[in-house]
Amino acid sequence: MYFYLADASATEKNRRTVDKIKSRLSELAIAGEWSEAFGVGDVGRAALTAVEQGFTTIVLVGGDSFINETVNTLAKENVAIGIIPLGRTNTIAASIGITSSLDACDILAARRLSSYSLIAAGQRFFLSGFTLTFGDDTAQDDAAGPARQLLGRFGNKLRQAGPRKAVVCRLKIDDTFSLQAPLTQMSVWNRKFDLPLSDNRLVVSLYGSDTTIDEASPLLSTLRRAAIAEDTKGLAAHFSGERLILESDDTQPLILDGRAAGKAPMVVRIADRRVRLITQRAHLHAPQPR
Amino acid sequence: MLRRREPRKTGAPETFIGPGVKAIGTLRSEGDMVIEGEVSGEVFVSGQLVIGRHGAVKGPIHATDIIVAGTITGDLEATHSLHILSTGAINGDTSCSLLTVDTGGVIAGSVKMVRTTEEFAATDDAVLRTEEEY
Asked: Model-level pTM?
C-alpha cells in the first residue's frame, strides 16, 4: 500500500491540484494513506513513522527541496520512492520523466523501478543534484534567532541579485587532476538522471564571476540576469568524476540549494546509499513491445 | 531564490576547461574536450580535442581528432586528424593520420604521418574523384 507524504506548504497553495491528484489516485486504485508535513524535522518523522507502520512505498508530493529532505531520511530504509511534483521547482521529477502531477499518478500505477545512487555533499545527501553557492550562513542557522535569520536570507538574496564575488577554489577530482579557478557557483548532477543506461557519475559545472551585472541596482541586475541564458553564461569548467574535494582559503560559508552547509573543505561523491525510484524511464532498461 | 543551473547536456563537450581555470594532473574524457584555460599534465581524449585560442597545455596529448588554436608544449598524438589553426603553436613532436596547418600555424618539432595503406588509397581516390568532377 502506498503512503503519500505531501509538503504542506505546497498543498496549501495548490488545493485544486491536490484534489485532482487524489481523485486520479482513487481511479487508479492506488489511493493509500495521505499525510501532510511541514518543516524539516516533521517531514523526517512522518516518513520514518510510515516505514515503521510497514509501508513499502513512500510517495513524496512536493518540489525538489522537499524531496531531497525526505530522501535524506529514507536513504537507509528499504522502500520504493515515488514522486508527484507539486510547487515551483520540480527538476527531479522532470529528470525521471514525470512532467505533471496527473502523469505522475499513472507512472505510480505502472510502477517501473530504477535504482539510483545518492550524491553525498558534506553531511547531506541529494537525489539528483544540487547547486552550491557562497554566502551568509545565518539564513538557516537555527541558533541565530529569527531576526538574524531574516537578515541572512535578505543578504543572500541581495548577493545573488547583484554581481556575486568570485571565491578562488581548488577542486581535486578522483585523485587524478585538480582545478583552480575563481567561482561563484557549482552545479553537481548525477549523470544517470540524464542517461538512464549509464553509471551513476557526477557531472560538474563550475561558473565564474558575472562581471557585466550592474552592482548599483539589485532590481536592474535581476532583470538583466533573467534575460541572459543561464546555461552558458559564466561557465568556467565542465567535467565528470566520482569524487571531488572542494577547498578554499576563503571563509565564506557554502550554501547547498539555499541552505547553509558549513565551510570548505567539502567532499562531494557518489554515495554507497541507493534508492529505488518509480520512474517513467525504466522502459529504457527493458523495452516494451509495441 | 537562485535558479538551479543544470549541467550542460546535448551538444556540449563532456569536458570543458574555461579561461582563467588552471588544471593540473591527468585529464581523461570519453567524449569531446575543449580547453580554453591552462592545463599541466597528460591529456587523453577519446573524441575530439579543441585547444582554444587562449588554451595552453603543457604535457603529452592523446586524442582521436585535435584542433589547435592555442599553444601546446609537449608531444601530441592524434590517431586520426590534426588541424593547426593560424593562432596555434605546437612545441613538441606530433603524429597523426591527416594533417592540416593554416597559414601562421606553428609546429616546432618532428611530424610523423601515420596512415594505413587503405587510408592512403582512400584519400588518393577521393582526390582523383574531386579532380574529375572539375
From this structure: 0.78
